[in-house]
ATP-dependent DNA helicase DDX11 isoform X3
Amino acid sequence: MKKLSVSSASAGRCWQQARGPSSWPAGRTSWSSLSTRVTRRESQPADVDEDDLEEEHVTKIYYCSRTHSQLAQFVHEVQKSPFGKDTRLVSLGSRQNLCVNEDVRKLGSVQLINDRCVELQRSKHEKKSVAEEEKPGRRRRLEPRATCPFYSHKQLQLLRDEVLLEVKDIEQLVALGKEARACPYYGSRFAIPAAQLVVLPYQILLHAAARQAAGIRLQGQVVVIDEAHNLIDTITGIHSVEVSGSQLCQAHSQLLQYTERYGKRLKAKNLMYIKQILYVLEKFVTVLGGNVKQSPNTQSLSQSGTELKTVSDFLFQSQIDNINLFKVKRYCEKSMVSRKLFGFTERYGAVLAPSREQPKLSGFQHFLQSLQPGVTAAPAAPAEEGEDRAPRPASPLMHIEGFLAALTTANQDGRVILSRQGSLSQSSLKFLLLNPAVHFAQVVKECRAVVLAGGTMQPVSDFREQLLACAGVEAERVVEFSCGHVIPADNILPLVICSGPSNQQLEFTYQKRELPQMMDETGRILCNLCNVVPGGVVCFFPSYAYQRQVHAHWDKSGLLARLAVRKKIFQEPQRVNQVEQVLLEYSRCIQHCGQAGGMVTGALMFSVVGGKMSEGINFSDNLGRCVVMVGMPFPSIRSAELQEKMAYLDQTLPRAPGQVPPGKALVENLCMKAVNQSIGRAIRHQKDFASIVLLDQRYARPPILAKLPAWIRDRVQVKATFGPAFAALRKFHREKSGSS
Ligand code: SF4
């Protein structure tokens, strides 16, 4: 376990302060006192300043992790701990996890659930306006539509109180919501101010707009980011936005028709901004080589390929450098034009959509849409008879707003990738964030302490340099702490093997790895390993393409048949939904072989670094007695995105004496992070044991060895030839199998 923390002098006091007498006391008493306090504040006269009506946020810890199952595991640990009884904990999640309206839940996808929920709330607003209009003397204009019965202010307040009384995971929260007939999605958000511990996924914490929409305030709080090994990539991914040619055309078409219908009612200033948005959309399509007036599906582009531009070059090439995007963005935010457009297309969608293709929205964009505060009523127009009430995908303009926002937030730190692929609908514009620290800076600035924790945080230099130093954190504020591994030293055997049984040097560079002699030598090594390793062997390849190539070569040469004498062979499946089935068969095979005896002693799994089995999958005990890493999984240097990121780091980060340039260090770190994640799959508990075999002489270089986790690095043996390596492996597994 490794962790980095950024702290202020008061960080050590946070827990005591959160639970101390000066703060809210814990348990039931605390919540009733809070309720009293809030009620009193809410009952103050209407002319009291808005800020005074807001609930106070007690000092708290925000704990975030990557997946809901990791968050649930953490909540269960809190429940079991001595603090479980009197900690006010609230779990946040998406509507997909927390919605209790069965009619909405059964829609399945995040997008449809978000859209339907927002629509139901909009209906609530409309219902109110209908009530207004039904007053004597007013003519009724609209039939009231369905609203969500779980979105009642009174019930939500009761649910909020219940949530804070006892620690609950997401499932318990949903059960409580059903019982109380109140929405857990909103109820949990209402509970944030009084909670001492808020458990939430990355996406809510790491995006300023999502934080704001969820009502999270980080000032003076403590943030713990678990599983932080991918934090830099996560922040980059969350803030990188891609818009397709289809979305651009669709947004243009919808906005144009909205303007045609309501143009006369719009104020001149609003009309001006809408025309600017239309102009920008048209220019974005033009820069991709398309025409906004034609269907994106039928437009084939004369050019194809990828072009990478700085933000200012992109704006200039698109001929929109004369448009003030900051003002356009502000107009979008204030007017909520995309939300209005969503309502408009809900009513007239059938005649608007230029193609039947649904906009490609990333999960996070949907998530952001769902968090937009306030719901704007659709334009006042009569509902048409026989109107299709089925929810439709949200407005593509919402997604494009994210792209515009990205263009305005990071001029020097961002790039735009123009990807032209065959037809306009397949082409896209992507904003690439080069400096994730821009967005992390606010977190470290506001919090009293930030803890980045993970099982395999090595190499940590990226976090220090790319994230913390670039976010303005002084080196003295960063504390590094590593607590080693729970297993005894002799339960792992990490080996770097530099050459194979026939003395072939092992160096899997792009030039050499496809040589038949390299693939043959790798096969011979695996055959030898499978003879002495019991149970499961997991073999990682640097890419899917290379794995397929090696598999085909071994199939032809008869090596697969030789391997199959000792191990049943499995391959990582192409599709995510097949992973579970393959793993089930793999573990059944190992179990069966262990009981039956015979020639076949287990199974051999061919996996890919960074693939579906290199993270989050547990190859404990017999499932993974040996992990083999074939070559070094360097990211593709031909990637335009990686090249730009390397150049950016070389320009912006200082180069320490005797060190490789920052860009090259990035490539090495990406490679070693992936290696560390993969090899960490096999050792999962204190009594577990496994050998770790790194096949490539480049692993023996001191700067590379230094990037292994300390608990592996301290025990690693470099073997120049195969004989001693094989002897060490045979001895290790004989001893361990005898004692287990
Ligand atoms: S308010 Fe809550 S329960 Fe109702 S639809 Fe939205 S998420 Fe579901």
Notes: Residues 95, 99-101, 104, 117, 120, 148, 150-151, 183, 185-186 surround iron/sulfur cluster (CB under 6 Å).
